[in-house]
Amino acid sequence: MIVSPLPDLVGRQRECAALDELLVGLRAGGARVLVLRGEAGIGKSVLLEYVAAQASRVRVTRAHGIEADMELPYASLHQLCTPFLDELDNLPEPQRDALRVAFGMAAGDPPDRFLVGLAVLTLLTRVSNTRPVLVLVDDAQWLDQVSLQTLEFVARRLLAEDVAMAFAVRDPEGESTLSGLPTLRLDGLDTGAAGRLLEAAVGGRLEKRVRDRFVAEMRGNPLALIEFSRGRSAAEMAYGLDASSHPSPQGPVASRVERDFASRLGALPADTRTLLLIAAAEPVGDARLLVRAAARLKIVPYAAPAKAAGLIEFGESVRFRHPLVRSAVYHGAEPEERRAAHRALAQATDPVLDPDRRAWHAAQAADGPDEEVAAGLEQTADRARQRGGIAAEAVLLERAAEVTPDPWRRGRRALAAAEAHFSAAAPDRATELATVAELCPLSALDRARLMRLRARILFARSRSDEAAPLLLDAAAQFTAAQSPLARETYLEAISATIFGGRVHGPTGARAAAIAARASGAPPSGSEAADLLLDGVAALLADGYESGLAALRGALDLLAHEELGTREATMRWLLLAPVALEAFIHYAWDLHAWDTLSSRAVRLARDIGALGALQPALIYAAGVHIHYGDFAEGARMIEEADALAAATGHAPHKYATLVLAAWRGEADVAARIIDEARERAEQRGEVSLLGAMGYIQGLLFNGLARYEDALAAARTAIDHDGFNFTGLSLVEHVEAATRCGEADQARASLARLLELTRAADSGWARGAAARCQALLAEGDEADRLYRTAIEEFRRGGVAVEVARTHLLYGEWLRRNQRRAPAREQLRTAHRMFDGMRAHAFAERARRELLATGEHVRALEDRPASALTPQESQVAALAADGMTNAKIGAELFISPHTVEWHLRKVYTKLGINSRRALPGALANAAAADLGDEGTGRTA
Asked: What is the DSSP string of 513-533?
């Protein structure tokens, strides 16, 4: 950050043009985002000043990061939003409350950082209703972590708002910061421009060789060119730099500039140097606090020499000319001098109004263990957690552990810091702090927590089966301590084996279930969680029949249990995947799948938990795919992918692949499957390997590539995973019968019958009947196909209803019963056509042609069809929701909602909200055809 940039931006015409274009787009009514990247001193801050100066009729708000060890949650975001806080009461209540808690203006549950992001997006949108808003963020790499994450979320969600954002990021420190956003990289000035800047700085012409050598040494860095020539005339520089008074030209330009700044400090009076050190130790730049701290050190706040040297500016706030000046001042001081500055700042900071900053300075002033300081930091960490600042909590607890004299308390605080670092997605730092905790005396309960943490870190890095034994040991220790965490940890161990391991073997899911059953663990405090553990454990340890009975007992509680706090809701969302996998793959219960995934989506939306919303949407998309509503499934997948991009999470590709398989989109699926299989093999993620085998089996059966389907389904079955075995058996039976492998088909059918018998659902009975029909003959086959159609319809599995019509029609045609074959094949083709299941529809069309009936090929959707996002916005608007409520539901701004609605009106040929319900009903009828999806209530 440079406080007083030169007015003439020499050699930056391209960059100025890009920023001018950003403003033109903003004034024209469209969101814009740009990240300026480059090394220190390259001109990023000057360009931000340029765009601010050009932003007439635009409201400008700023934040800037400052290099400091202090991590106070949402500090930078609060700085940016302060001018707009009078609009806070106009935000939707959940967003308003989240922002108040985040900014320390109110008490409440720790807010989800993405809900805070939505609140900031809505706030900026409201402010932009009167004038466009330009957000400028300098040195973004040094923002507190949660502020940076929130602003990145806002930047990724901008679409139709009158808001622009420009960030400056220093490389290499911020190399990974804001990756994927539109970027303009700044390099050094070219030789000509750098020479002109240098000559302007010294006030005269330089001999060409001297000028070019100086420019080459500074690598065209504008700050270096200006600072190294400061105070020297053209005549003094005629023979180049005086090596005795300038830093060596070796090393990075930024380091040389910092050394040059440091060399100027020695000429300043001692009191001025101390004043600069206090300012460097206090990143907020509060001038009044600086004066109070100076008084504590009994020095006169004499800043004039530093101002004359161009190092700092004083006003209501204190600002260094460049972050390198701050770094030179702070790191150039002796350790005891730095501690004295922090001690003075702690004493000068109000303990009531700003206890967190006071605690941090007291910690930096400590020259050894100090329990009072450690306790203050622990309290500050707790306040950071309550505001949703997990990264800040981790840093504060870590420092508290460092200054804790008592080894028992040090171990407990180090463990808490490790857990917080893991929650903040910093597993390496979590591992280091876990090692610190392990070297300290710990209670039995804390030992169990430590073991659970190590297992979680291991599982996060590699979905291997190595984590489950650690989790089981931790659960056993929790049980011995009669902790309610025991059952939760047993369920976590089983979950680890479900998603990362196999069912059988010493580290498999069954072994984990048996251990849980025998543990005698106390209740967890959640009846639904306890019943779920009992059900899954019984399923694995006792067999399908007793296990499914116990699972069904948990369903009602999982669907309706009251969740009074955000913490309880988050625990439910963490349980949901295990419950869903059990109900999908063992209960074969599409309605339970729908009930639980719908509740997961609703709960995640209600509390703004976008991290949990993404997988919930993927599960819900799977439901709609099986209902035959591919458009709704695609819409949910698109929303989940948009959330993944906005939050920086890896997208979940399972539903995308299942949809591609049903549609027969081999090219779409192939690349994703290859990447997923490679990742699964690297991480040992058995469930993902099983999923890929099932998906390829489905895809290849639809494309009538039966040998490929046979091999793919076989690999899924052989992986011995908790999930996908049953679905893969269905694909394997069909492929095997088509390939003439009757023995393989019978063996898979026997396993399938065992798996589905206890389920006793329409989906399970339909799968069993159809696979039996594929191996039967005559009237028995005819009866079984009809039974399968009826059972699948009863279970609501429309895609399988259509598929059974197809297989039945193929069987009838091969038995020379052309008239009834046409009837079945027409139904299959009509249903698949309405779903846009391209491969299966084409397979039905070819079979119809073989009966002598002409049928059209599947047509593509018209260009005017709504996108998934438009469909969702339109549906919510048709239900009577306002733009603000739709925006809160979908984590977008009301302006973006209006932008989507305008496109919807154009595509549907309407001009008002009142016409939406009828227009959407007509479009749905046209898409689905006469048969519909086959979905049942």
From this structure: HHHHHHH-PPP-S-HHHHHHH
CA distances from 803 to 194, 494, 851 (A): 70, 34, 18
* Residues whose CB falls within 8 Å of the CB of residue 281, separated by 6 or more in sequence, listed in order: 330, 338, 341, 342, 345, 361, 364
As beta bridge partners, residue 34 has: 166
Q: What is the mean pLDDT of residues 171-186?
A: 89
Strand bridging mode 183-185 / 32-38: parallel
Q: What separation in angstroms does the CA of 285 have from each of 288, 304, 587, 718? A: 9, 17, 62, 64
CA distance 707 to 738: 8
How many C-beta atoms lie closer than 10 Å to residue 482's C-beta?
A: 11
CA nearest neighbour of 665 among 722, 701, 703:
703
Amino acid occupying residue 589: D
Query: Tens digit of pLDDT for each residue in 607-634?
Result: 777 778 889 999 999 999 999 999 889 9
Q: What amino acid is encoded at 599 in this protein?
A: R
Give the residue ranges of DSSP H helices in 520-629.
527-541, 544-560, 566-585, 590-607, 610-626
Q: At 700, which amino acid appears?
A: F
**Residue 620's Cα: distance from chain center in Å?**
18
Residue 847 phi, psi (nearest 5): -65, -40
Cα–Cα distance, 920 to 891 (Å, whole number)? 23
Rounded CA separation 384/111 (Å) = 11
Q: d(Cα 792, Cα 798) in Å, to the nearest integer? A: 7
pLDDT greater at residue 123 or residue 314: 123
Confidence bin at 51 (pLDDT 50/70/90):
very high
Q: What angle do CA 439, 443, 445 make, to 5 degrees?
A: 115
* Amino acid symbol at 890: L
Residue 265 has pLDDT above 80, yes or no: yes
CA dist 881 and 311 (Å) reads: 55
* Confidence category of residue 84, pLDDT binned at 50, 70, 90: very high
Give me the helix-helix angle, 527-541 and 485-500, nearest 10°. 50
Ordered alpha helix ranges (H), 648-685: 654-663, 666-683
Which helix (H) or strand (E) segment holds residue 170: the answer is: strand 163-170
Range with the poorest average pLDDT among 696-710, 836-850, 861-875: 861-875
Residue 815, φ and ψ in degrees, nearest 5: -100, 20
Element (H, E) at 185: strand 183-185
Distance of alpha carbon 598 from alpha carbon 617, whole angstroms:
8
Cα→Cα distances 131→53, 56, 161, Å: 16, 10, 11
The mean per-residue pLDDT over the stretch 496-518 comes to 75
Phi and psi of 576, rounded to 5°? Answer: -55, -45
Using N-to-C axis directions, what is the helix angle for 390-402 and 145-157, rounded to 10°?
A: 170
Q: For residue 28, give the 3-state DSSP assignment.
A: coil
Nearest CA-CA partner of 146 in 386, 362, 327, 389: 389
User: At a CB cut-off of 8 Å and minimum separation 6, what does 819 contact?
Assistant: none
Pick from 209, 206, 186: nearest CA to 198: 206
Under 8 Å between Cβ of 645 and 818: no
Q: Which of 540, 620, 641 is nearest to 586 (CA)?
A: 540
CA distances from 333 to 273, 283, 310, 464 (A): 9, 16, 19, 49
Q: Are 142 and 65 in contact (CB under 8 A)?
A: yes
Which residue type, as a one-letter code, is found at position 226? I
- CA 339/CA 318 separation, integer angstroms: 20
Residue 595 pLDDT exceeds 50: yes
**339-371 pLDDT tens trace:** 999 999 999 999 888 888 889 899 989 989 999
Q: Which two tokens stand for residue 394?
A: 């981790």
Query: What residues does 138 pair with on adjacent strands?
Result: 64
